[in-house]
Design goal:
Structural class: mainly beta
Number of helices: 1
Largest sheet: 4 strands, antiparallel
Strand content: 25-35%
Helix content: under 10%
Order of helices and strands: EEEEEEH
């Protein structure tokens, strides 16, 4: 009888698109955060942290209020998002 050397089928994870959003505490309440990989970034956005453009293909972070409908989403450079707590008051948009 021949051997079966095939791998067991595993649940496949999506390889493109955004990761699941997580909930964190923001300055104005809970905020949903989603990390967008470079392959999932297809448009140009303006980062509220540095006011520069996020070019297509650039990995970045999307954040919005947990109680909102997503209409208040903001796209941030990952570095700007990580440094948001060190910015002056009023720079969180």
């Amino acid at each position: 009888m021949p051997r079966k050397n095939r791998r067991q089928s595993e649940a496949r994870r999506p390889t493109s698109g955004a990761q699941d959003p997580s909930l964190i505490d923001g300055p104005d309440g809970p905020v949903r955060v989603r990390r967008i990989p470079g392959a999932g970034a297809e448009k140009t956005y303006r980062c509220p942290g540095c006011d520069l453009e996020i070019q297509p293909g650039t990995p970045h972070v999307v954040a919005w209020a947990d109680d909102g409908d997503g209409g208040d989403r903001r796209h941030w450079h990952t570095g700007c998002w990580n440094a948001r707590s060190r910015r002056r008051p009023g720079r969180w948009r």
